[in-house]
Design goal:
The protein is α/β, with parallel strands linked by helices. The protein has 13 helices and 16 strands. The longest helix has 19 residues, at 4-22.
Length: 418
C-alpha cells in the first residue's frame, strides 16, 4: 500500500506539471476541454446519480444533519444545473492575458501589468458534489491546475465526476491531471495538503467552522478563508413592509442550508410596532422556528433565544430575532456576532443605507434584496468556489477573476541603469 504522503507527492507533482501546460493554453482550447467534460457528464448521468445514492446511504449511516444531506443530494434537476454550469463558465470572458495597465517610464521602458494564473489551487470541501465541478471548471478556465479533496460522505460521487473530467481532458488531447481528486478518504491527506508549499500556491477551504479552523491553524500554504455565513438582515424603521416580507422569507426559506441564508433578523422598534408581529408570524406559519429576544416572546409560537443563538449559523429552518433601537445598535450587534460574510438592510431611506454600507465591512452588503443572492453565479461569475471572508487578494464570491494574479512585462530598447 502506498503511504499517504507518497500518494500526495504524486498528486502534487502531477498538478505542478499540469499547471505549466494550462497556463499556455488558449481560451478556445480551455473551452473545448470544458465542453468535452460537459459531454462526459451527460453520458455518465445515470452513474453519477447511482453513486450519489450510495453516498446518501453513507451519510444517513453517519447521522449527517438534514442540511448536510441536502447539500450532498443530487437528482436529475440538480445534475442538469451542474452540467449547465460548465457551459456558463465556458461562455465567460477569459481573464488570462488581459492587460491591467500599461505605462512608459521617462527612460523609455514600457511596463505592462498582465493577468496570469495563480498556479496550483487546492480545494477542501464538504458534502456538496457540485463544488467539484464548479471548482475544477473555474480553475481550469482561469489556467490553474486543481486538487480537490471532498468529504468522505461525497467520495463516490466525486470519483465519477473526476473520471468525467479526465475523460474530457483526454478527448481534448490534454493531460488528464488538470483536475485531480485526492484519492483517499483518509483525513491525513488534508494535513499533507496544507503543508505542501512546493506544490500548492493556495488552499481554499469550503465547509463548516471546524474545517476552516483546522485549515487556518495548520496551513503553511496561503489560504482563501471561507468562514461561517452568519448572515444578518436589519429591518429599518423606513422599510417597505411588502419588500421586507418577501426578502426575509426568501432569505430564510428558499435554501436554509446555504451560507447565504439569513440567520439573524434585527428589527427596528418602530417597525415592530406597525408590522413586525405579522412578519414574525409569517415566518412561523412557514415552518421556521423563531428564537426571539425577551420583548418579543409574547408573539405566539416564538421561543426565547439564548446567548448562543446570537452569532450562530443554524443552516436550518431556524432564525434568531432581536429588536434594536437604532442603526448604530444594529451595526454594533453585527460587528459583535457577524462573520463578515453577507449582511443586508431593508429600508427606503437612502442616507441610512449609505451609512449601513459605510459602517460595516462585510464581504457582501445588500439593500432590499434576498441574501441568497450572495452567490458567484448570481454575480455573473458563472460559478464560485466559495465566499472569501478575508481581506487579502480574494474577497466575496471567488470566481475566475479571484483565481488569478498578475505579472509585469518590461520592454526595453537597450536601457541600462546608472
Amino acid at each position: 500500500m502506498i503511504a499517504i504522503s507518497d500518494e500526495m507527492v504524486r498528486v502534487g507533482e502531477n498538478a505542478k506539471n499540469s499547471s505549466k501546460i494550462l497556463r499556455r493554453l488558449t481560451s478556445d482550447k480551455k473551452n473545448e476541454i470544458l465542453y468535452c467534460i460537459r459531454d462526459a457528464l451527460l453520458e455518465s448521468r445515470n452513474q453519477i446519480i447511482e453513486e450519489n445514492k450510495i453516498d446518501m446511504e453513507f451519510g444517513l449511516s453517519k447521522n449527517l444533519t438534514e442540511s448536510m444531506l441536502d447539500r450532498l443530494y443530487i437528482d436529475d434537476t440538480r445534475l442538469d444545473q451542474i452540467i449547465n454550469s460548465l457551459g456558463d463558465i465556458a461562455a465567460l470572458p477569459d481573464p488570462i492575458g488581459t492587460m491591467i495597465e500599461e505605462f512608459r517610464r521617462p527612460n523609455g521602458l514600457i511596463i505592462k501589468k498582465i493577468v496570469t494564473p495563480i498556479g496550483v489551487i487546492g480545494v477542501i470541501f464538504e458534502s456538496r458534489p457540485n463544488v467539484f465541478v464548479d471548482a475544477g471548471a473555474l480553475c481550469l478556465k482561469s489556467g490553474n491546475a486543481s486538487v480537490l479533496r471532498c468529504g468522505s460522505e461525497s467520495y463516490n460521487t466525486a470519483r465519477v465526476l473526476e473520471k468525467c473530467f479526465k475523460f474530457g481532458c483526454e478527448q481534448a488531447g490534454i493531460s488528464k491531471s488538470l483536475v485531480q481528486l485526492v484519492p483517499t478518504r483518509n483525513r491525513s491527506a488534508v494535513e499533507e495538503m496544507l503543508n505542501m508549499n512546493e506544490f500548492f500556491d493556495v488552499i481554499v477551504p469550503r465547509g463548516g467552522k471546524g474545517l476552516v479552523k483546522l485549515v487556518q491553524e495548520k496551513a503553511t500554504v496561503p489560504i482563501f478563508a471561507h468562514l461561517e455565513g452568519i448572515v444578518h438582515i436589519y429591518v429599518h424603521s423606513d422599510a417597505d413592509p411588502v419588500k421586507a416580507k418577501k426578502v426575509i422569507l426568501n432569505s430564510k426559506i428558499r435554501k436554509p442550508g446555504i451560507c447565504g441564508a439569513v440567520e439573524c433578523l434585527l428589527i427596528d422598534e418602530k417597525f415592530i410596532e406597525s408590522y413586525g408581529t405579522k412578519m414574525i408570524s409569517d415566518l412561523i406559519s412557514s415552518g421556521v422556528e423563531v428564537r426571539v429576544s425577551h420583548d418579543l416572546l409574547h408573539i405566539d409560537g416564538t421561543v426565547l433565544a439564548n446567548e448562543r443563538d446570537w452569532g450562530k449559523e443554524f443552516l436550518s429552518m431556524t432564525v434568531a430575532v432581536k429588536t434594536v433601537g437604532s442603526l448604530s445598535e444594529a451595526v454594533s450587534h453585527i460587528e459583535s456576532y457577524g462573520s463578515n460574510h453577507t449582511d443586508c438592510i431593508i429600508t427606503e431611506n437612502d442616507k441610512v443605507a449609505e451609512r449601513f454600507f459605510l459602517d460595516l465591512d462585510s464581504a457582501i452588503l445588500m439593500r432590499n434584496a434576498s441574501t441568497q443572492f450572495a452567490d458567484g453565479g448570481e454575480f455573473g461569475f458563472g460559478a464560485e468556489i466559495g465566499i472569501a471572508t478575508g481581506k487579502i487578494h480574494a474577497r466575496g464570491p471567488v470566481g475566475l477573476g479571484q483565481l488569478t494574479t498578475f505579472k509585469y512585462i518590461v520592454d526595453g530598447n537597450g536601457q541600462t541603469r546608472g
